[in-house]
Amino acid sequence: MTPHTTVPPGSVLAAFGHPQATARPLRGGEGRAWSTGRLVLKPVHDEVEAAWVGDVLSAVVEDGFRINRPVRSTAGGWVVDGWAAWHLLAGAHDTSGRWAEVLQVGRRLNHALRTLPRPAFLDARTSPWAVGDRVAWDEEPLILVHDALRPVAERLAAHVRTEEGPSQVIHGDLTGNVLFAPGLRPGVIDFTPYWRPPAFCQAVVTVDALLWHRAPPSLLDVPGVVNRASLFARAALFRLVASDRLASNQPQGGRDHYLRSTVTDHERVVGILDGVHGRSA
């Protein structure tokens, strides 16, 4: 489905029960989110996935976290003319010094989602992140568009081992999607389902924190996780391959800078992983 680039039309606002509302651009959401002050509206890429997410999030039991509940249309569906809506969740994207809380939210959310069956729509995804996920888990070969990323990709791949344990539905992009507000439990937004071992949810958060938020290497010291260097390497490969595909959308002038930054960020992480593997893989 082609993403919408304009404000959600009045007919969509009316269908979600807010006929007199005015929608304004909302920061984040890949620049596609709009808010009425009470609702958040975004275009959907896959209506089957959007309906599945609506069913899941409307029923999930909140235990130590809040979730942005989806809104049904007046006709009873989750999607109207390519748009979906959620109740606006209070809070700010301030994860500084709160990585332990974000990781705890991931564990609690994993527990709440643990009984869900694997959704079939995952197989049809073609986004850069879907490709990165499959490459990271050996379901597609490690093929890169940009040769500049190959050396660091090979170093990450050298850390990968066979993982043990079952997979389940997880939030595969939790890092920037936890909101904090005084007196409230952490809020989870923009649920992106993947089918992976539950610890991979936290591994992605940890690697993201190291890549882009200058978190300390001690964040990798997770007790009781088997093959933790391998799990973190898979998370870094997930991000690296996605960045490789996203780089193709960059203007030529900015692409080289984007690739250099990607290499620098991932070299820092793989250097930390070298030390983790040396101590205890």
Provide an overview of this structure.
This protein is α+β, with helices and mostly antiparallel strands. It is 41% helix and 10% strand. The strands form 3 sheets. The protein has a 4-stranded antiparallel β-sheet with strand order 1-2-3-5, with no helix packed on it. A 3-stranded mixed β-sheet has the order 4-8-7, with no helix packed on it. A hairpin with an 8-residue loop joins β1 and β2. The longest helix has 28 residues, at 252-279.
Brief description of this entry?
This protein is of the alpha+beta class. It is built from eight helices and nine strands.
| End-to-end gap | 42 Å
**Cα-based radius of gyration, to the nearest Å:** 19 Å
Task: Give a quick account of the main beta sheet: strands, pairing sense, barrel closure.
Answer: 4 strands, antiparallel
Number of strands: 9
How many domains, as an integer? 2
User: How would you state the average pLDDT, rounded?
Assistant: 91
The outline comes out as: globular
The CATH class designation of the largest domain is Alpha Beta
In the CATH hierarchy, the architecture of the largest domain is Alpha-Beta Complex
- Number of H/I helices: 8
Order of helices and strands: HEEEHEEHHHEEEEHHH
Ranges where pLDDT stays below 50 over 5 or more residues in a row are none
**CATH fold-level label of the largest domain:** Aminoglycoside 3'-phosphotransferase, Chain: A, domain 2
Beta-strand percentage?
5-15%
> Helicity range of the residues?
40-55%
